[in-house]
Amino acid sequence: PPAAERRGAGEDEDDFGYRLFPDRNKKPQSFLVRSLFTFHNKCQLMLRLTLETNPYARLLLEALKQSGCTVFNDRHFSCENCDGCVSGGFDAATSQIVLCQNNIRQQSHMNRVVTHELIHAFDHCRAHVDWFKNVKHLACSEIRAANLSGDCTLMNEIARFKFGLKGHHQTCVRDRAIRSILAVRKVSKETAEKAVDEVFDACFNDLEPFGRIPHSKADAKRAYRDFQNRDRYTANL
């Protein structure tokens, strides 16, 4: 799910998805206490591996830095226990990515979640996203995250027992964007579908910072190399 920002005591935080992240409202535990939990240790190790080796994440981290939003591992990522239906989220109030340590068990899953949430962070950095009052803004970032994070690769869709030929990638992106909106906002399915449909073409074709739809790690590596070389020609003039 996308960003969730703290509101005043009089507002219902459930409207913004905080019910899915119960640890957000608890006092932080000491490092020693957290280290006693295997889930937390494993989450931290998988996160480090993702940030150091995954081309999707490395490109996004560099793009965020160039946009003026440098990401620090200890400051901007938090491994926490979450509701059973979510794997991660972006908290706009703290500019922090939440990783659901009790739901992320495999490295490939960690790679996708980190990438998905970094795309939300990138959108938050480069644009004035109104996550809460404008469902179209939320829909646009969810479309981009589903499209560019690897959520809808062929292998992932086969693992979900979903098959299709022509236009299946677009169908997957649309469906996952709608699901994400419904997970964190108390809106009707019709409202979510309308928001996604109204912005789909523009947001699906916004491929920044990848410059392409990275359907595989090989695509992501090429995109990362191209991103690093993007300004080289101009610099040599």
From TrEMBL:
GO MF, any single term: metal ion binding
GO CC terms of this entry: mitochondrion
UniProt keyword list: Hydrolase, Metal-binding, Metalloprotease, Protease
Enzyme class per UniProt: hydrolase
Domain of life: Eukaryota
EC number from the UniProt entry: 3.4.24.-
Biological process annotations from GO: mitochondrial protein processing; mitochondrial proton-transporting ATP synthase complex assembly
One Pfam family matching this protein: Peptidase_M76
Family: Belongs to the peptidase M76 family.
Protein name, entry field: Mitochondrial inner membrane protease ATP23
Organism whose genome encodes this protein: Oxylabes madagascariensis (white-throated Oxylabes)
